[in-house]
């Protein structure tokens, strides 16, 4: 048979092996290819694996048990984390609670047990009232627990203000009791010794600002304004001694009914004295307005008045050094009113009864019920002449024309009382007043330096001659008829202290005008005859 062709048929497309992912191209062989290997007719060749770039995706392989996390484990971890956070939150809250309690214990609950005794049963609120130094006492804490009210120690107490302890509501106070009838049942004396706690009344101790008292408080302090506590009667009204619940002694001055000195004078005095503070002026403690009743509460000056010690019956003779101390102290107090207060203050009722004395006989000027303001330039003209007969300045007695020189004249009359021991008016001399009796004696004493006819005979010539000369010169200068020729009170103070020459009292005057009679001439704005006529007219009134 003829030889077959050496060229083998091309393999089928299905039987061809898969191409390599990275096929290598080989050049075609020129040699005759070898015939394919014989196949077994019974065993078909397996199909080749699908090509990698075929569009049929391969099924996913099952997860391996060695690298996966089970759902139960995840849930357990989450639950554990939440539990840990909850425990930490509870611990934090507990720590905060303990710290807060510890701070509260250190700041609020400082009173040692047992608590001190409570206030008196008649306290208007029935319980203790305190001012807390930092925070108010708690009532309920943040968890709803009721906290007890702590009781501070007694030393932490201070008098509450009128807003803290209002007085209980009560009907309007009754009218004042009669002054001449004693009353022992309207109130009790609260001396403060039976009650260890301070009283609830505001501002009851000296040194506080002025306080407003109720009528009931002052009635209790004065034992119902009893006659036993009546200190005297001044131009403003009756004065009673009182004892406040803390033991402080006061002088309660009540406006005299029908005196003509009503609300205007009262309000003026409260306003004035509340701003005046001086060693030789009586201090105002408080006041009371109850209906038509008005009262002033002053510090109590224990040793009575200059009038009591100088003119009182059965009193021992006041020695000269004591008289000098009183003259100098009262001059300083009056100089403060005239020259250191703004606006200046005129007393208008300087007299021995308004000079209060302590146990060292230091003088305090009292009774500002007649005080008035005036400006630096204008002269105040009063519609009513007020004052005490025998002390009134000539120009004031005639016309009501008022300057600080009116007080200077009254002070000169008081110096004449200290020098002579005589009252401003009396039957011991034929003249109408002490001033008219003393004028010729003052002139003679200033000329020859002899004071025997002028000086109080009870002194028995036991006085310092230089001090007497200074006081006589001051008295003569103060009682000059011409107001503009009288010295200022500061000049009087320096002259009494010996810090200036007596000739300084004649400052601004021409030679010859310093004599006590110098103002009697035509140049005088007020002469002696007019003065005597005015004094007689006032005495008849």
From TrEMBL:
* Record protein name field: non-specific serine/threonine protein kinase
Q: Which GO terms describe its cellular component?
A: plasma membrane
Q: Which PANTHER family match?
A: PROLINE-RICH RECEPTOR-LIKE PROTEIN KINASE PERK1-RELATED, PROLINE-RICH RECEPTOR-LIKE PROTEIN KINASE PERK4
Comp. bias intervals (Pro residues): 1-21, 33-63, 168-179
Q: Which GO terms describe its molecular function?
A: ATP binding; protein serine/threonine kinase activity
What InterPro entries does the entry give? Answer: Kinase-like_dom_sf, PERK1-13-like, Prot_kinase_dom, Protein_kinase_ATP_BS, Ser-Thr/Tyr_kinase_cat_dom, Ser/Thr_kinase_AS
Entry annotated with the keyword Kinase? yes
Name the residue ranges with Low complexity bias.
Answer: 22-32, 180-195
In its UniProt entry, the species of origin is given as Gossypium aridum
Q: Which UniProt keywords apply?
A: ATP-binding, Cell membrane, Glycoprotein, Kinase, Membrane, Nucleotide-binding, Phosphoprotein, Serine/threonine-protein kinase, Transferase, Transmembrane, Transmembrane helix
The transmembrane segments are 73-93
Occurrences of domain Protein kinase (ranges)? 225-502
PROSITE patterns under this entry?
Answer: PROTEIN_KINASE_ATP, PROTEIN_KINASE_DOM, PROTEIN_KINASE_ST
Q: What is its EC number?
A: 2.7.11.1
Q: Which Gene3D superfamilies match?
A: Phosphorylase Kinase, domain 1, Transferase(Phosphotransferase) domain 1
